[in-house]
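4.2 Preliminary Data

To establish feasibility before requesting continued support, the project team ran the inverse folding procedure on a target of 279 residues. The structure was first converted into the token representation described in Section 3, and no sequence information of any kind was made available to the design step. The complete token record follows.
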């Protein structure tokens, strides 16, 4: 077992601090937000690339912050910016492009689910989806052995994976992702939903209580990951027992009929495949 140590979590970037200050102010000017983002040319370029990603499904090509805000809403643009800044903190990570693509995918599905069923703040659902697996990048940057560990352990269900990580590293990526969300001043319910993914079933069935908002976020995240898994493993779907039980618990918690969800999932997977082909 690796000895316990305080892991290095990237500090909140200055530009994010300024953006969050602007969002909290009552007189936020779109031009001020745009100017702040444009100060970092590479950040602006990556943001525009992300905005025009097929995952977001915008009806037209976006070339400036103002258009992005008008099509997506101010908070979603800021949430996307946060996700980009998270990724930028792990430039040296061995993680592949598909890892970050899956985060964007889960975020978009979470956002769509929240809006489709009018369950909760869609922006918080989007943020939770974007950050749900960021702890993996933190573990990679702190432990040289983590890459090899994941090569042999990633096929396990997440509850088992969490136990194995704690046995080997005395911490787990779910906790580290939650700590990053907390240190970057994300909503507390976002951090809680990220943290409690390994015990989703217990929370969604009421065996453990964490509050209505984080529980709803966890339910949305659970369903979004299920849809993403079906899309990424379209020809070889392997749902472990934990995933199935958690999905059913999420459907019950949100009062969504399984047949209705399956139809929704089929539509989402088809849309994702169509967007992927068009990209």
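Position-by-position output of the design step:
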């Amino acid at each position: 077992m690796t000895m316990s140590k305080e892991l290095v979590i990237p500090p909140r970037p200055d530009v994010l601090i300024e953006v969050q200050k602007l969002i909290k102010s009552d007189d936020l000017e779109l031009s001020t937000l745009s100017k702040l983002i444009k100060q970092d040319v590479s950040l602006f370029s990556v943001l525009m690339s992300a905005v025009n990603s097929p995952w977001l499904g915008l009806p037209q090509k976006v070339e400036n912050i103002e258009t992005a805000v008008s099509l997506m809403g101010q908070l979603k643009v800021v949430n996307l910016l946060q996700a980009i800044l998270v990724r930028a903190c792990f430039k040296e990570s061995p993680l592949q492009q598909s890892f970050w693509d899956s985060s964007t995918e889960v975020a978009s599905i979470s956002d769509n689910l929240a809006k489709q069923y009018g369950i909760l703040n869609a922006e918080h659902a989007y943020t939770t989806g974007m950050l749900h697996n960021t702890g993996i990048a933190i573990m990679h940057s702190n432990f040289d052995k983590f890459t090899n560990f994941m090569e042999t352990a990633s096929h396990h269900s997440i509850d088992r994976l969490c136990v194995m990580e704690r046995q080997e590293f005395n911490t787990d990526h779910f906790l580290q992702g939650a700590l990053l969300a907390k240190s970057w001043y994300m909503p507390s319910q976002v951090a809680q939903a990220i943290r409690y993914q390994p015990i989703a079933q217990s929370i969604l069935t009421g065996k453990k209580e964490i509050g209505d908002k984080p529980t709803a976020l966890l339910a949305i995240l659970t369903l979004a990951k299920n849809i993403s898994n079906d899309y990424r493993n379209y020809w070889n779907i392997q749902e472990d027992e934990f995933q199935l039980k958690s999905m059913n618990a999420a459907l019950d918690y949100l009062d969504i009929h399984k047949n209705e969800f399956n139809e929704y999932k089929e539509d989402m997977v088809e849309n994702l495949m169509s967007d992927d082909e068009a990209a």
